[in-house]
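In response to reviewer comment 3 from the previous cycle, which asked for concrete evidence that the modeling workflow produces usable outputs, we include below a single protein chain processed end to end. The sequence was submitted unchanged, and the resulting structure tokens are shown without manual editing.
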Amino acid sequence: MIKLNGKEVEYKTFPNGETMLVHESVKDLGYVVNEVLFKYENDSDLIKLMFLKKYLDALGWGNIDLVITYMPYSRMDRSENSSPFTLKYVSEFINSLKFQDVTVIEPHSDVTPALLNGVSSNYINFDLVKRVMKEVNFNSQTDYIMFPDNGAAKRYSKMKVKNELIGHKQRNFETGKIESLEVIGSFIENPDKVIIVDDLSSYGGTFMMSGKKLKDLGFKEIYLLIGHAENSVFKGHLLTEESPITKVFTTDSILTEQDNWENKKYEDKIKIYSIEDLLINN
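The workflow returned the following structure tokens.
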């Protein structure tokens, strides 16, 4: 989904799969400074983004900024064993479109802002964690924040919470599976609430393991805050009754299937914030 100055841009698809920008949908939308909101759903959105920017350039539009709600291919932020450096390739493609300024919401790693030109990062979890704390009646003196790994702990180090726990995972590098998880940090006897904070979730296996470990350690309410959740969050065990996670808090920066009737049974287990509302109020 792509929006220009708050209005969704329309596209049509020909029978052979070619994409056409409906130019009437962007008519009379120009301002002195223009903003394109880019919500990646599949690879065709990259082509749509190119068509829009090239068309606006041809019309002589001036300053055009880009807001990326989730940077596609963020996980592929390095080349290992001669694998394709996919994030680099996508970043080069976006750079070639020459937007004035680029904002990335909750980048997965430092690699994304290093690869994009004129970029700034918006770490929305710093605002969201305050909202979640209020909603779950979090006591900053006695309750805890957990970062599931050192990467998350480094990313959110400026949260400066009083009670902090960090997960230490042992991963089998051949299979990619997490074989064990240790929680680093001290906590009081009979702890009550903990909020796990991270940027991205797919099926939620890491958070299931973290939640089970925290449950074994005596935590009664275990919440999860993730800036980006993929549609696969509805297909794993994270939102089911057997999940150790009390409730998931996330945004619709990637999600597109939250209104699917099959997912309504999970309504009590997940709260989804509108990324556009967050950007307006941020």
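Residues 130 and 247 are 16 Å apart (CA to CA). We consider this sufficient to address the reviewer's concern, and the full set will be provided in the supplementary archive.
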